[in-house]
Amino acid sequence: MTEKLPDASLDQLFRDARTYNAWQDRDVPDSLLHELIDLAKLGPTSANCSPARFLFVKSRAAKEKLKPHLSEGNREKTMKAPVCAIIGYDLDFYEHLPYLFPHTNAKSWFEGKPKKIEQTAFRNGSLQGAYLITAARTLGLDCGPMSGFDNEAVDKEFFADTNVKSNFLCNLGFGDGADLKPRAPRFRFDQIALIV
Questions:
Q1: Cβ neighbour number for residue 171 with a 10 Å cutoff
Q2: What residue numbers bound the domain in which 26 lies?
Q3: Cα separation of 154 and 147, whole Å?
């Protein structure tokens, strides 16, 4: 893995990729969602803790359950998206460390430490959500990540009787670029980065 990706790949992943709010009327097959997770799960997390949990809201009935918990600006575009992924994080992630990180007793690093559990789950779950977006773009899917929803209500609706908490949402499908506005400005290197 010493070769830089070709420009076409960098364009698809970053330069030409956009946040979509409108969607083509095309299904995202379940097999593609399986492929998506198979890629996204390979991204690194601390001690391979892998706290992210992904719930793909695809059916009309599931979307109707999600709808009242979305902010006004997110309702219509989410109802029209082929899939809305709820990216969550499992506060019981450390229970799986004997399997995921078997060469040491990593579970003991977290037991009885709720603040460390929350920070680790949220940080690494957020990373995994970003991997999901990147993986989706490699598979030809467009993404519409967003906040703007009632986390507590979504957790009650979709993650009841678990220790999973929602982080953010990401609409997935094949974007309709008809209403895309010009890309918003980005910082220059020297405004956000420093080499020391």
A1: 26
A2: 11-175
A3: 12
